[in-house]
Amino acid sequence: MKIKLFDIREDEKNFAYSWGKVNNHEIVCVEEHLTLDNVSSLEAFDAISTQQLHKYDDDIYEALNKVGIKQIAGRTAGFDMFNKEEAAKHDIKITNIPAYSPNAIAEFAVCRALELVRNINKIHKRVTNQDFTWDENVIANELRSMTILVIGVGRIGKVSAQLFNGFGAKVIGYDPYDQSCDNVEFFDDLKEAISKADLITLHVPANDETMHMIDEETISYMKNGAYLVNTSRGITVDTKALLKGLNEGKIHSAALDVYEHEFDYFAYDYSNKSIEDEILKDLLSRDDVLISPHIAFYTKTAVQNMVEISLDSALEVINTGKSLNEI
Ligand code: NAI
Question: How far is the CA of 119 from the centre of ligand 1 (A)?
Answer without folding.
Answer: 27
